[in-house]
Amino acid sequence: MTGSPAAAAADAITPPSPSELGRMLRNRQFVFGLLVLVLLSVAAVFAPYLTPHAATDVDVINRLKPPSLRHWFGTDGFGRDVYTRVIFGARTSMIAGLFTMLFTVFVGGAIGITAGYFRGVFDNVVMRLMDAMMAIPAILLAIAFIAILGSGLTNVVIALSVAYVPRLARIVRSVVLTVREQLYVESARAIGAGTPRILIHYVLPQIVPTMLVQGSFIVAYAVIAEAALSFLGIGTPPPAPSWGNILSDGRSYLSLAPWVTVFPGLAIMAIVLSLNLLGDALRDIIDPRLRTDR
Amino acid sequence: MTMFLTQRALALLPVLFLVIVIAFVVLQLIPGDPAVVILGIEATPERVAQMRTRLGLDLPLHEQFLTYLVSVVRGDLGRSIFLDQAVGQAIVERAPVSLMLAAMSLFWAILFGIPAGIVAATRRGSAVDDFVMTGSLLGMSVPSFWLGLNLILVFGVWVRWFPTGGYVAVSTDLGAAIWHMMLPSLSLGFIQMAQIGRMTRSAMLETLSQDYIRTARAKGLSEFVVVGKHAFRNCMLSIVTVVGLIFAELLGGAIITEQIFSIPGIGEMVITAVAQRDYPIIQGALVMVGAIYVLINFLTDVAYGLIDPRVRIA
Lengths: 294, 314
Hints:
Chain A is mainly alpha-helical. Chain A is 71% helix and 0% strand. Chain B has helices at residues 2-28, 34-39, 45-55, 61-73, 87-122, 127-141, 144-158, 174-208, 211-218, 223-260, 266-276, 279-307, 309-313.
């Protein structure tokens, strides 16, 4: 940790130096995770250009066809191309994961920073509320909010964010509790810096690494949870493809056409694995004391 | 110990109170009139008025909350709209099913997770360690519902070792009950197995680097005694914490697993309630699962006290 407040803040917000970048690129987990994530993101963004079929094209003559050159991942019960639905489903998952993460990081981060910095009654009340929200399993809390808001991707994002905010707020608060006692924060206070300035310039940069690591895990949780909710029939409504509702469709033909469930499942696993690898690698790079492979 | 437990129990009460607040707020957050949302827009004004009275919506907000709080404290979670049954009774009928699923999943997670973590830690850097770490990473990335579908396909449909779904009560036939829960519990417990394995390995590595372990080895104790008696006992606190948290997670995961395997537990009831907009059931499930979580937290604290004398003396 550097001595002056400005330098400390600059440490955390400057882009990684060449040596840090080298350290990241030497980390096999990081590179593998990043590669898989980039591939899936490219597939999601350029989905219409990567398939000659449309995700909702019904072709009953060719229903439940096994994987072939024409249909790489086979077809489902309506004759829809599973490969096309999987890559279009990647969009739904990516949107759910990314927006849940952004919303959670923004709200959970703000709650964690203010509770940890101001302490006192506000901290006590807010964190007890967070504890109570964490007493309810995230998926059940999300289901309760979907019961209120109705299904659909936007509501899934809101419901999942509500479920993950307390978890992130708690982690951020614990980091802020340490940061607020640091000498550079005290010296910033001593030279007359106002609270907003201290929070934004001196506290926030110190929790960015934590939010980055947690952010990657939140995307992973959200991808699985969105798929689970769509699988249960209360997430993304059909016929729009989501990995969860493709799995749900395929369930009826499990023994007849296992390919309908195998490929979306592998896609979920690949993205979650890559995000877990990235999260673990980022944590190792940012704080080697927390290495999981010690 | 009594003092310690009393303090812990009192600390958990506000959490339980706020869980009730959250369940109450759920009904208030419904856009528009909850009575209309439940009954549909074609409902007659009389039926809407009846439903409003039934849900207590005709009272001022603070009275609504006080009435709800007092009812919940008395064990009355309201009445289900579609089951035509007391919510408490509906949950109590289904809770043993969900608890059995969660408990069996936890059993597999502990049975395989802890030994895997210990072996990986004691053979750090070896092929076994790599296998456990890679396996746990893959395990944490597999969606339990997808794993469940694959288990049904392989062990239920292809080799026909286990039933593909359904439920048999323990009181009817213990063997058949366990047999029916095999695939659901394995699919639900797999992720937790991976988590417990990683956690145990990490806690063991931390403990094995301590001075007293070096001393134990230096005085000639066998590796089995050093690891099993000296190191493992000191890892127990971390493992118990994770196991407590995992049990609560399992209750959440059970919601999805119950749907896949057609198990009539709390999860299945909640999903049906969402489709039917049976809000009293959803509120009741939130309170009940929250209360179970608080109870598990308390039992975890009791376990701390039993494992580590410093906790109960402090």
